Amino acid sequence: MKLDTDTMGATERFRLTIHHEQPDRVPCYVMGIPPYSKCYKEFFEREDQIFDKGGWGDDDDNILLTPMGDFTMKYYFGADVEMTGIGVEQSVPKFRLGKDGRIDHGDGSLDIVEHGKEYTYVGSGMIRGTKILEGGYEYSWYIDGYLKKKEDALAWYDKHGWFADQPVKRAMVDAFEKCQGEYGDRICLVPQISGVQLYESLWPIMGQARFAYYCRKDPQFIHRLVEDRKQAQLNILDEIARYKPIAVFGGDDMGQKGRPLMSPSTFRTFFKEPYSEIFSKIHDMGAIAFNHSCGNITELLPDLIEAGLDGWQSLEPASGIDHATLKGKYGDHFLFVGGLDSREISFGTPESVRKHVREQIMKMGVGGGYICGPTHDFLTETPLDNCLAMRDAIQEEGRYPL
Q: Which residues pair with 84 in a beta bridge?
């Protein structure tokens, strides 16, 4: 959101921040606003107040119907940065599970589900549950891996296609350039690698126990699966390069509360070199590479940074991260994005949210290199007033010099 006190636009603010210079204020990144969340519903309940004559929406500059999508709501919630994803084209259907726990080929694929019911199905090699919520929105969750055996996984990819062999979605270069040219003063678009995470899309097809088993018993099998995903990401980056980006966003959930989901030695064995190739290709574009990861991956940061990672988005307080220590150790060259506790934004008061925002900005924002925002999507019960308190606090408390 553009303020009267701003001295620069969103893209310039983002550019200075990622290069560890101080902009006019700390930028904001809002990861997601689910349509079933309380704040989303309240936004439309107050639509008349927000958009009617004399309201926020009365200024045409606040309506961001861009060639790359409608960013109006994100902009209202204070976002200076938005991601636009590019992945590979996949057409694998969802399959019903039979009573024996195997795909019921006689029952056909599960492409359409009935509203209000819960289903268990196989998709992308994983067993998942899904429920159609009120309003027709789909909510899905992970249950287990379906491809427990090596031969099952290889047969699955031979039949449905390996990631690296899938066509890459086309970059809308003209639309991207037009969006940046016309709207870049209000929101900065950053291309994102989507859907082929090296680790996060791998272990769920077999489950953590089988992943650990194959890491020990058949490391070449794991290397093959990682190599496929790495090559797919490199293919995606060929398309992203057409945007001439200043940053590329990726993602790979490698953490849990208190620690990573894998040991540093496992990361070094299977993931460090592939990530080094990915980050090098991003750097060759003249861009920085920053990734999302839930949980606490502090133990992996030295290897990730050595591989070429330039920043980390999420920084969940609930996972036990010491933000001040991280800033002191890496803050002169590493980008921090997020850091606001989703529990506080959901269940606190507007006053406590403001206090939390101020504390996190002071821990990570001094000297630049910090983009403030929620660690993840707004939770289901997040009230609109708390979101607006977060937005206003970032804009007011984040003015440089801090």
A: 191
Task: Kindly tell me the burial class for residue 387, based on how many C-beta atoms sit within 10 Å of its own C-beta (0-12, 13-18, 19 or more).
Answer: buried
Beta strands in 73-174 (DSSP E): 81-86, 95-96, 118-123, 126-132, 138-145
Q: Mind listing the pLDDT tens digit for each residue in 59-94?
A: 889 999 999 999 999 999 999 999 999 999 987 778
Query: What token pair was written down for 301?
Result: 């940061």
How far apart, in whole angstroms, are the C-alpha atoms of residue 35 and residue 38?
8
**Contact yes or no for 274/308 (Cβ under 8 A):** no
Kindly give the residue spans of alpha helices, DSSP state H, lying in 243-298.
264-270, 272-284
- Name residues of the chain where pLDDT drops below 70: 53-54, 104-116
Q: Are 396 and 353 in contact (CB under 8 A)?
A: no
Domain coordinates in residue numbering, the chain? 10-91+161-397, 93-146
CB 317 within 8 A of CB 323: yes
Structure tokens at 150: 């090596």
**Pairwise CA distance, residues 349 & 9, whole Å:** 30
Note the pLDDT tens digit of each residue in 358-392.
Answer: 999 999 999 999 999 999 999 889 999 999 999 99
Can you name the residues that pair with 38 across neighbouring β-strands? none
Q: What fold, for 10-91+161-397?
A: TIM Barrel (3.20.20)
Predicted pLDDT at 135: 73
Query: In 3-state terms, what secondary structure has residue 134?
Result: coil
pTM for this model (two decimals): 0.94
Q: Which two tokens stand for residue 107?
A: 């029952």
**Token pair of 9, please?**
């636009």
Closest CA to 290 of 302, 273, 300, 278: 278
Distance, in Å, from the CA atom of 129 to the CA atom of 153, rounded to the nearest integer, reads: 20
First to last CA, the chain: 20
Amino acid at 204: P
Rg, Å, the chain Cα set: 22
Q: What is the largest CA-CA distance in the chain?
A: 67
Query: What is the rounded distance in angstroms from the CA atom of residue 341 to the CA atom of residue 360?
Result: 10
